[in-house]
Amino acid sequence: MTITNDRIVTDGLYQNKRTQIDPFAFDDSVTKVFSDMIRRSIPGYQSVVDITGLIAAKHLQPSALCYDLGCSRGATTASILNAVGDRECKIVAIDNSAPMIAAATANLVDPRVSFQHADIRDVEYVDASFVAANFTLQFLPPEDRLAFLRNVRNGLRPNGVFLVSEKIDDDNEFTELHLDFKRENGYSELEISQKRAALENVMKIDTQDVILARLNDAGFTRCRIWFRCLNWISILATS
Ligand SMILES: C[S@@+](CC[C@H](N)C(=O)[O-])C[C@H]1O[C@@H](n2cnc3c(N)ncnc32)[C@H](O)[C@@H]1O
């Protein structure tokens, strides 16, 4: 049985003018408001998470592992469990933020899930049939991304699936619309600009072509974009 009890706390982190903007970190204060922050910041976030569960349910094998990389408070893992119902499965959900892992562990109680506090670059992936990295790869230093993807690829069984969702560097009109999306979701100009400054050297985005070429280099044979909303995409890459 799965017990989920995530609490939504309104994000007001960047509401007040700061004298100094520190680099964005998935620390205690971000963890507390994260569920609200991500929904109000990423267009299509809930659809990606919900459909990740449906896709995972098609690829999970009882004897294979499923990984949720950069699991934060456990939303993707919860969606996967919701989609598989009572089926046997084994999910390893990893994040290098201690507060995120603490929140996920408190939110989601299910014997089929193990939450691990680790850096996804240091994990040896084994015997997986499905791996999800929803909005996580963009936080790895660009020079580490290919080695990380090779590692994931090597841990997948034949015909295993890697689902990766990222913000892309693309159309300016969509960038403007993304700002409108944030305003529409109640963020002020000050909040938007302070958060953008905090993220500047922390979240490094690539073009869609660079992401696809890197997946190809890492040995994924078939990459399909299954979701796009403005400059946010999600890809299914098959081993
Ligand atoms: C945008 S959040 C991911 C959201 C989450 N996947 C979801 O669907 O709700 C990015 C997460 O990746 C984690 N992260 C960033 N770099 C990491 C690394 N090197 N190893 C493990 N986790 C990492 C952060 O701590 C954060 O929780």
Structure, described:
It is a single chain. The longest helix has 15 residues. The mean pLDDT is 96. Helix content is 41%, strand content 23%. With 239 residues, the protein is an alpha/beta fold. α2 crosses α3. A hairpin with a 2-residue loop joins β8 and β9.
How big a fraction of the residues is strand?
15-25%
Roughly what percent helix? 40-55%
- Mean pLDDT, all residues: 96
Instruction: State the order of secondary-structure elements, H for helix, E for strand.
Output: EHHEHEHEEEHEHHHEE
- List low-confidence stretches: none
Question: Could you give the topology of this structure?
Answer:
Elements: E1 3-4, H1 28-41, H2 45-59, E2 65-69, H3 75-84, E3 90-95, H4 98-107, E4 108-109, E5 113-117, E6 128-134, H5 142-155, E7 156-167, H6 172-184, H7 189-199, H8 208-217, E8 222-229, E9 232-238
Parallel strand pairs: 2-3, 2-6, 3-5, 6-7
Antiparallel strand pairs: 1-4, 7-9, 8-9
Helix pairs in contact: 2-3
The structure holds S-adenosylmethionine (SAM).
